[in-house]
Fold these 2 entries.
Entry 1:
Amino acid sequence: MEREMLDIVFALTRFRQYVLGRHVQVYTDHKPLIPIVQKAFDDVPPRLQRWLVALMPYDYSLEHVPGKEVFCTDALSRAPVASTDASPAESRSLHEYVGLVLEAAPVDIADIRCAAQDDPAVSKVIQRVLYDSWLDILPSEHPYHLVRDQLTVVDGILMFGGRFVIPEGLRTAIMILAREGHPGQEAFQDTLRQRVWWPGMTKDASTYVERCSECWRRRTNSPQELQPTEVVGVWRKLAVDIVSIEGHSILSIVDYGSRYPILKIMRSTTSASVINELDEVFPAFGLSKTLVSDNGPQFVSGEMSSFLSRLTITHVRSSPRYARSNGMVERPHRVLRERLSALKPHLPFQRRLNQMLFDIRCSRHRMLGTSPSEALFSRPLHTRVLAQLHPTVVNAEHQLKAKAEMSAQHDSRRGVRMLSELRPGTKVTVQDGYCDKSQSWSVVNQFGRQVGVTDGSRYLLRNRQHVREFVSPHRPDDSPPMSSANLSFSRHEVDLQRAPAQAAPRIGQTSVPEPDRTGTGQSARIGQSTAPGAVSACLPSVDLPPSSPCHNMPLSQPSSARESQPAPKEHTPAASGKHSFGNGAVTRSGHVKFTEKARLYADSLS
């Protein structure tokens, strides 16, 4: 190949006075020379770079023609010559150029040469390049055979274009040098591509970055895909939250079906105050089927649980430390602050709040295609601008289409990626901003996007966005096995001394202490005394469809009815060596007994 290129240099230099300053078509019978000339200058082998520099003054294009069709030049090329050795000046110039290339090596040239001799594949490829013999290649030589037209040997070192071919023994050292500043994966691969090459270098670089302990500890999950809310009837599902604006505590209520907002100013944020406000809302608008809230103390108290159970309202809690999971009421808070600040500040706060609420209730909602008031009351509110219109019905098909478009736009803009489901026993880390990222946790269960994890002494419930699969780059995980004897739970997560009358057990509730939804880290041991009948929910309550096997199941049964039922199946952790939490009750022996209700509840979730 080098001689073919030298022929072109000789021809254009010989007829310089005829071809300089005009376009020349050059024909060659060496087809591999065509793609090499079309490459970037840095990707061309060093020996050919010298000839390309010599051809820069000329305007030419190279075209391949079979040798049997080029009669004159083919015949002249067969004439005998006295000597094929290069002149001393050409040899000296060639060695000087090659020396400049070798000076740019990332490591010592002698180390590369010695490692190439110790590597069977690289040493064999060097011999094949020197003698242009590629017959009976071995499987380890196949990657080099695919790029044989770009391989050259310079001073005993194999070169891929203008890059050094690194033997296997020096590849790790090269990657360590390139990763001193901990660049990203793309920057790290680009740094390697500038000077070195070996088969599978891109894949090796990606694996090395993923196994870097420092980079892994600071890495976070990619954004999750947007999960649109289900289309429900008006006033069937409500979202509640407490927000503080301009020193006022406001109870915010939003209807999932109509997006109708309700704001109540409260003097205190206790459970009793929230219950009093809900007692005013429900008689005016009716009872809802589901109530969604965060894990604030006023919403997880026994008083609130008893109040909702008395009204047969299912209580669903969002993921702790993850406000987006209750976005139906969390997102309007930003609009609330912006609009209140835009209104006249000299007006009383209550008047500004009422004016803003009236505008929101009368404005057309993009998702519904109508105003929230018209969606809830089937009639628009009379305003000073618009006359009263005929009632319309909320179009569910329009909502589904709008939600799908919003979900696709969100996923495309945020670059989301589906997070895999975590199996029980998987080692993970919790990255919610409160837990130590380097601490290893073990997955206990997962329902929906909430994952229950334990470190042997605590049980936490976090959103899947905050849970990342643990990777140990240096040694296998040696975390102690989980034991029900030393497992403890946060005092803020569950009230083990809760009186029986505070909360009636619902479908999906068990006697397992409630997971940590606050992240305070205070705990109570399982061995502590528990009031009879104390029940805490380990799984969030959901709205079961009429077709669900749990829909018509009674929430509680008398003791005589329970005794007449067949004994539920037992899960024996002693046999499998694992403990399960979520859809069962812990027996006195520390085993977990799964009830049929909990099993049907889990099936309805899936």
Entry 2:
Amino acid sequence: MSPTFISLLYVGLSLGQAVEVPNGSLSKPHLQALPAPVVAPGGDVTLQCSMSPHSYLKAMTFILQKGQNMEPLQTKPGEGTKVDFCLFFLRPQDTGNYSCIYRETTDSYRVSEPSEPVELWVTDILPKTFLSAKPSQLVVSGGNVTLLCWGPIQGVRFALYKEGEKSFVSIRESTKDRAEFPLTHVNITNMGNYSCCYYLGPDSHVLALPSDLLELTVQSEQDILSQHTAKTQVSRYIMIALCHIGILFLLFLLLAFLGHQHTQTGSLPKPFLSALPGPVVAPGGELILWCRRPSESFDWLVTFSLLKSGTQEPLQKKDLVYSQAKFSLKSLGVQDSGNYRCIYYETSSPHVKSEPSDVLEIWVTGLSLGQAMEVRNGSLSKPHLQALPAPVVAPGGDVTLQCSMPPHSYLKAMTFILQKGQNMEPLRIKPGEGMKVDFCLFSLRPQDTGNYSCIYRETTGFYRVSEPSDTLELWVTDILPKPFLSVKPSQLVVSGGNVTFLCWGQIQGVKFALYKEGEESFVSIRESTQGGAEFHLSHVNVTNTGNYSCCYYLGPDSHVLAPPSDPLELKVQGEQGIPSQHTASRNLLIILSCISILFLLLVAFLVHQHTQTVTSHGQIPRRLPDCLCLSQHCSSYNPGSPQEESAYTQTNEWRQRGMTVPEGEDSQEITYIQLNKGIFSEAQIVFPSKPLLEPIVYATVAMHCGAERDHP
């Protein structure tokens, strides 16, 4: 038995107690938030600080701290191995990192190490989580798959749910910032779209945003084998296509060598910058800025930088991160107000930077968001104007125009004013008795059609006037214009697929109705968004085939005629009616082949033009011209004509016999003169049809019939 173990037996201490005594320090405690580290503004939370279970101390004091501040936030004497710190009526500025320590109240008064920090969130809405599947979203029937849900908040449970089901699939405790949901022996009933979110319990008042949908597909081994065969065949075509692309790339390099340059500039897509719990914070408070890069960008380590207008250097940097970075701003003052942006760049290539994010304006003030905007702008934010029941009314009818202030406005005494068009004269004036006022218009006429807006102004204080509301177009008519109907992605749909009808027109704020030819009732009625409405049809089958139309819908009691749009035919076919992936790949191969041939022809033409340009600048020895006009009038010359070919042949024969070339004996009055080639640079003229025995240079002289020859 070793001496150390003997000493432990004699002292009567545990191993952990024995470690504390020789080291002269106390082991760090554990801090947790109950029931969760997320609470809505105005709520309560309990932070429980507990010692190590093997600690031998009996008299100690627990201390709660926040952030890097060493001043105690709360102090409690220990009555056991743990103590609860209760925080009531929390505010957004209470968000931050908390830790606890404990110390002896007797003997040496030693102090423990701080606990691991617990991040407390005081907010109305939690950030969106992320969901992924491993090993893949495509699973063999009977196999296993694990769905991984993760997010920026630690210590909160995660819930997994499936689209179309009322209850959660499962709820899991988190491990740091993530949780795993294993699905075993999956079958076709497990197919569908899944999402996950933070779960704070059924009584929580905090909104937890769900993750993006993740589609899980379950197939049999035979289907996967057939798909693998099809992918192999497609891969073969892709390899051929890549060969064509490689040829095109080499041709591109050839064009660049000939002097044609192609430059391509760009940058990484810009990130998104957000503030939690919001862009307005009280002096001395804390703020968390999240910088996220787009989900479709690359997936390697980058560096994020936080920038502020007016400063040259980044405020903060976060190295070697993937999709997002967290910047903490603490003890903010009025001087910290301003415009913030963030960028990211490859850690290995700092010169390849993203575009800056959109500007996020931060206000350090004691006002609310709406009040801060009004103080900053020096004017009141614009109200909202809507027509009830609808912005369309028949002649002689009535309508109510409701003008309402923004919900965050702090004004209590104001006057509302209704205006029409660009006329600044008030159409109606009403004192405000709340956040909104109704302007009733009776017995309307067609000339009352137009754009209406409203404003409000203070009746005390600075007498400021708000910005005008967005214009509301009011229609007083017996008949509405015809809307338009389109479909995406196509009018031809595979059975079991999804399709979306888009109905739009020039009137905004009116519902749209979709109906099918041959059916008495409407297929669906939708509210409009910016003059249009979408109608989604999912899992279509052959019964959905037919002609569809849409129209404005003003209710069953409306006296306004709403003509329908032109009919749009929807066709639903089985999978055999749609071109196969093999055919599409073959068509792609044919198209790429045609493009390659056309590109080769273009390169050949450019090379020929380049050669001609080089020749014209004297880089290749010039040959003598084919025609030397020795008189003032040259006749037409066609070297391919039979007479010319005969004349050249006869002249060649005379030269072989040592005879002199006669002048002017052909019908075209053409004289051939043998020149002394010694006075010219060495060059040969070769005729493709009848080559000459030795290099001879001829010049053609065209003379008028009967004219005297002035040249020898």
